[in-house]
Automatic annotation (TrEMBL):
This is TraH. Residues 158-205 are annotated as: Disordered. NCBIfam families: PRK13843.1. InterPro entries: TraH_2. It comes from Sinorhizobium meliloti (strain SM11).
Length: 205
C-alpha cells in the first residue's frame, strides 16, 4: 500500500505499518468489495462492477445481514432505518480507509485498555492479533466493538487518541444502531489464522 495514500487517508493515530497489516489481514484489494453474511454464513452475491452496483447490493441486504464494504471491510450500516442514507463514497478507497482505520483505531484503544496500557512493546503482536480478530468477529470480550464507546488513551503504543489530529469525518459513519451483533466465528472471506509479518513495526527492518 502506497505510503502517501496511507498518510493522506488513514487515521493518524495508527502506525503506517500497522495500517498495512490491518488491511492485508482483514481487508480487500478491491475497493468495490461487498461481503454479506447472514446467520454467520457467507451469502453469495454478484461481483459489483461499479460503485452504484455495489451500493445497490448493500441497500438490498442492509438490515437483514452483516454487510462489509471496501478495502477495510468495515460494517456498512447494518440495521439502519433508511438505506437511502448510504452513499457510494464508502467505495472510494480513501474514504473507506479513513472510516475503516478510524474504527480500527477505536478497537485498538479498547484492546489496549483491556491489556492495562502496557509499556512492554513485545506485547504488540498479540495485541494487534487480538484487535484484528475482534474486527473480523465484531466482538471483544463479549462486547460489540463497533457499538462500544471509544475509551480514549493510547492506540497500542502510539499516540493517544486526543494527541493526533483527527481524520476528516467519514461520509458514512457507523452509529451504534447500524451494526447488528455478529458471530464469534472468524470472517469466512478474510479467513482466520493469517500470518502477520510485524518486522516493519517498531522500526525494525
Amino acid at each position: 500500500m502506497d505510503a502517501a495514500f496511507i498518510a493522506k487517508c488513514a487515521d493518524p493515530s495508527l502506525n503506517p505499518a500497522i495500517v498495512e497489516q490491518f488491511v492485508s489481514a482483514a481487508g480487500s484489494d478491491d475497493p468495490l468489495a461487498v461481503t454479506v453474511k447472514s446467520g454467520g454464513r457467507l451469502v453469495l452475491i454478484p461481483k459489483p462492477r461499479s460503485p452504484d452496483e455495489a451500493l445497490e447490493v448493500v441497500r438490498s441486504n442492509v438490515g437483514q445481514a452483516v454487510v462489509r464494504v471496501g478495502i477495510t471491510q468495515f460494517p456498512a450500516g447494518v440495521g439502519v432505518s433508511d438505506a437511502s442514507e448510504l452513499q457510494t463514497s464508502m467505495f472510494d478507497a480513501c474514504e473507506n480507509l479513513r472510516t475503516g482505520t478510524g474504527l480500527f483505531a477505536k478497537a485498538a484503544r479498547i484492546v489496549t485498555k483491556w491489556y492495562g496500557h502496557p509499556t512492554n512493546k513485545e506485547l504488540l503482536p498479540q495485541m494487534l492479533d487480538d484487535t484484528i480478530y475482534a474486527w473480523k468477529t465484531g466482538t471483544f470480550e463479549g462486547d460489540n466493538i463497533f457499538r462500544a464507546e471509544d475509551p480514549g488513551g493510547p492506540t497500542f503504543f502510539g499516540k493517544a487518541s486526543g494527541d493526533a489530529k483527527p481524520a476528516a469525518k467519514p461520509s458514512n459513519p457507523v452509529s451504534a444502531d447500524e451494526v447488528a451483533p455478529q458471530s464469534g466465528e472468524p470472517d469466512t472471506v478474510t479467513g482466520a489464522g493469517i500470518r502477520i509479518d510485524l518486522s516493519r513495526i517498531g522500526g525494525q527492518k
